[in-house]
Amino acid sequence: MAGAGIAGAAVAGAAYAADELPACEGCADSMTVVSWGGAYQNSQQKAYSEPYAEMTGVEFVWDESSNEAVAKLRAMAEAGNITWDLVDVVASDAMRLCDEGLAEEIDFDSALAEAPDGTVATEDFGEMIVSDCFVPQIAYSTTFGYRTDVAEWNGETPDDICDVFDLEAFPGKRALEKRPINNMEWALLCSGVAKEDIYDTLETEEGQAQAFAKLDEIKDSVVWWSAGAETPQLLADGEIVMGSTYNGRLFALIEEQKQPVAMMWDAQVYDLDGWIVPAGLPEDRKARVMHFLKFATDTQRLADQAKYISYGPARQSSAPLVGQHAELGIDMAPHMPTNPENATNTFLYNYEWWADYRDDLDAKFQAWLLR
Predict the structure, then answer these.
(1) pLDDT band with cut points at 50, 70 and 90 for residue 17
(2) DSSP assignment string, 318-362
(3) What DSSP string describes 167-234?
(4) How far apart are CA 23 and CA 160, in angstroms?
(5) Which is nearest to 129 in space by CA: 103, 106, 100, 96?
(6) Spatial CB neighbours of 306, under 8 Å, sequence gap ≥ 6
């Protein structure tokens, strides 16, 4: 599936146990890794960077700029100064970076470890590999959390995505992400467009106007967020009554912080998150990144991440190894977005569509916010 790209020559070969990590000859002794902060980044540190650093002595520097990854990598490339070594991005951003030549292509079966039974990476990750430059890590969803103690709701709780647009039945401030993705889809769903017609409708000027008109209905009651940690904090502080964010953030708020908040899974939007390697890294930094990637994306490591956050591991061989939360001791299955009880009405995010239309709709969305 992938081109010649990076073959991970420093660590070629089959899967290996953590205590058999081969040496990384000629590799840099530090890495700058870009992620999202909060509970998600913590899960990466616990499952990947902390054990890797203990085994290798490598120093990790974390940057929480993933929501600006495309713009910042474009600027770095233009300046000829790539300061990031490994970047966590959503699948559609990986596609854009790959198309623009800002991310390296990966030879997955050479660069990544096999499954314990010898299954090669491309088969084990399967459909999760949506770009030649994208190393899948987890499946997650963007969904809504809501306060369970809102007196004005008279004991009712939101259980339908369109309740977000119902200010009469569910008064109070909402939080939505400050970007068109997900908001435009939900708006069209709640203005009567069938799921299967969402992206065809959104391609048209009329469809975009329809989505903005629906969002206009609640615009004055919306707090706009950019970082995934904002909605959980707003919910905890009682500044909003409901808000969208990543399901793992809500898991931490509900199960770890024990806040009076519940999850609304209706029309949750599935997405993929994973790694890209910036194009043009010096050889010693590139070798270190590939050494780390082979470790961090093997079957056990991906299962380990799911012990800290309720995101499904991208490898099929990892799923059976996910059990209880490493610190809370609770079964993680009911908290996964892919759990059958949570997945009765999901919305499938179109990565390729957003890779093509993101820049145009971003500009229109920001202009709409200023109106």
Answers:
(1) low
(2) GGGG--B-TTT--BSGGGSTTSTTT-SSEEE--HHHHHHHHHHHH
(3) TTTS-S-EEEESSSTTHHHHHHHTTT--GGGHHHHHTSHHHHHHHHHHHHTTGGGEEEESSTTHHHHH
(4) 52
(5) 106
(6) 138, 312, 313, 318, 322, 332, 336
Which two three-digit tokens encode residue 141? 């969803």
* Model confidence band, residue 127 (pLDDT cutoffs 50, 70, 90): confident
The answer to whether the CB of 339 falls within 8 A of the CB of 327 is no
Q: Are 23 and 123 in contact (CB under 8 A)?
A: no
The letter for the amino acid at 124 is D
Tell me the pLDDT band of 108, cut-offs 50, 70 and 90: very high
d(CA 134, CA 48): 18
Q: Report the C-alpha gap between 261 and 298 in whole angstroms.
A: 34
Give residue-wise pLDDT tens across range 158-208: 999 999 999 999 999 999 999 999 999 999 999 999 999 999 999 999 999
- Residue 50, token pair as written in the block: 């902390």
Over residues 226-275, the pLDDT tens digits come to 988 899 999 999 999 999 999 989 998 999 899 999 999 999 998 899 99
Which structure tokens are listed for 102?
Answer: 């800002």
